[in-house]
Structure prediction request, 205 residues.
Amino acid sequence: MRSKILGLITLGLLSVNAWSYGVGQSTHPMRANQKFITTEFTGIIADGTGVGVQARYTQKLNDKIRIDGGLGIGGGERSSRLFVGADYEMFPDYAKQPRISMKLGYENASEFGDRINTFSITPTASKGFSFWGKEGYPFVALPVSVGLNSDTRTYETMVGLTGGWTGKVPLNIRQLSKLTASVEMNLGLKDTYTGVFMGLSYPIN
Prediction:
């Protein structure tokens, strides 16, 4: 069953054109050294519209730090992208206190015919709740970034507002019990895209 699920994730990545990003599994509870492989549907609504998929790898290194990375490929105005990130937990989700973290990221992307190197910092708050007997983890983030255009030797600052949710797949199907679902939306506040992301993650250890 595990090989079939990994095969479906790989097939999903290779079957359509894509670009990438989003908060991903940066806020979902993970044990130390746990790893996720994720396939995400992406829908860009504004500033380079279109749909696609992306692949993401996430690993929690210790109690405070987790890393992720991934890629998106395809045609259109956002034709390719590679990204890596590291999230540091400043305060845990405890009692009435939300989890607060800071994520540093780097992207190398081909956008609108130019090569863009983007450095970002993303403060994030999340909190676990019970929804109809199932644990869910809504979050809100404020990604702030600087994009360096290597073709024109210019730069611009970008600001977005992201909200989303992660949790176990809300279906009582034994074969899906290990999967984690995620949904998020990024609202482009300044010089960035507005988009919707939906993903499924599978633990690989």
